[in-house]
Design brief:
Strand content: 15-25%
Order of helices and strands: EHEHEHEHEHEHHEHHHH
CATH topology of the largest domain: Spore Coat Polysaccharide Biosynthesis Protein SpsA, Chain A
Distance between the termini: 50 Å
Number of strands: 7
Number of domains: 2
CATH class of the largest domain: Alpha Beta
Number of helices: 11
Strand order of the largest sheet: 3-2-1-4-6-5-7
CATH superfamily of the largest domain: Spore Coat Polysaccharide Biosynthesis Protein SpsA, Chain A
Shape: globular
CATH architecture of the largest domain: Alpha-Beta Complex
Largest sheet: 7 strands, mixed
Length: 291
């Protein structure tokens, strides 16, 4: 059995996947398997992956499912991963040639308190996305990395598979295709730390059709998914600022969903009441920006 699964949820990304495939073929260590979760693609993804499987350069597993969204792809991946460690590399991203080697070297002697490691994302020209992780940190929770240590930008997480499998799947909402992935990360934060690694594990390219570039539209199209995420952020938020900010967003998402029962699911009712006027203002702003 391989030590690492690199998994990639993909939807109509046959034009981008060759870049990731090439980077995986160049890895200096081949102790990994590539799991592609095809989330209902209607392009040539299936035949393209079949041709790579025939080449046999790397081990590839392909799973097709009806379209569920990115979080549904993560659910399916976690259900099917059997290697000790896993990392998600999105279909529009790729890995430096030594990424698998760095991951396995840093995961080799992880203690029981660690759920995995957290490393850096970078652009094609080598610029770190956001900021580096403070060098003095030997252990950190992902949420604290941003809220306490003021680190910015996307980071790449490698998890122990047996840890991830302990936690609930992302919920699926009818007619919605997006739930923010930080729900699972917050749950893991309550029980485990991550070991920081100030090395680039992923090269990131934000696409015009990607979720990062269309967040206002995502917010409006998938209000229940966002509301679900805000409830967990309020519950587990470490600072008042974090909890209040997410209370404002929860009010806004409840308005988009036309379901005010979301406001009753928070464990901070007074905070929710205080956030109502700001949430209404945010909702109006998003409506204006997403026209």
């Amino acid at each position: 059995m391989k030590s690492l699964t690199v998994f990639t949820p993909s939807y109509n990304r046959a034009y981008l996947l060759p870049q990731l495939y090439s980077s995986l073929c160049r890895q200096t260590v081949k102790d990994f398997s590539w799991l592609i979760v095809d989330d209902g693609s209607t392009d040539s993804t299936e035949s393209l992956v079949a041709s790579w499987q025939q080449e046999g350069t790397i081990q590839i597993q392909y799973i097709y499912q009806e379209n569920q969204g990115m979080h549904g792809g993560h659910n399916t991946a976690y259900q099917n991963i059997s290697t000790p460690f896993n990392v998600c590399i999105d279909s529009d991203d790729f890995m430096p040639d030594d990424a698998v080697a760095l991951i396995l070297m840093n995961c080799e002697n992880l203690g029981g308190k660690f759920a995995g490691i957290v490393g850096l994302d970078a652009t094609k020209n080598g610029e770190i996305i956001g900021t580096r992780i403070p060098e003095h940190l030997a252990a950190v929770k992902l949420n604290e990395l941003y809220t306490i240590h003021q680190v910015r930008g996307d980071k790449k997480i490698v998890y122990k598979t047996d840890v991830v499998k302990k936690y609930p799947h992302y919920p699926l909402y009818r007619n919605e295709r997006f739930v923010p992935l930080d729900y699972l990360y917050l749950l893991i934060d309550q029980d485990y730390d991550l070991q920081p690694v100030n090395a680039v594990l992923c090269i990131v390219e934000y696409q015009e059709d990607g979720s990062s570039m269309n967040m206002f539209k995502q917010y409006r199209k998938h209000p229940n998914g966002f509301a679900f995420s805000r409830v967990s952020r309020i519950k587990y938020g470490r600072t008042f600022k974090e909890r209040f900010k997410n209370s404002i967003h929860l009010v806004s998402s409840a308005l988009f969903a036309k379901d005010f029962s979301w406001l009753l699911k928070s464990n901070r009712p007074i905070l929710i009441v205080a956030a109502v006027p700001f949430g209404i203002a945010l909702n109006l702003y998003i409506r204006y920006k997403s026209v």
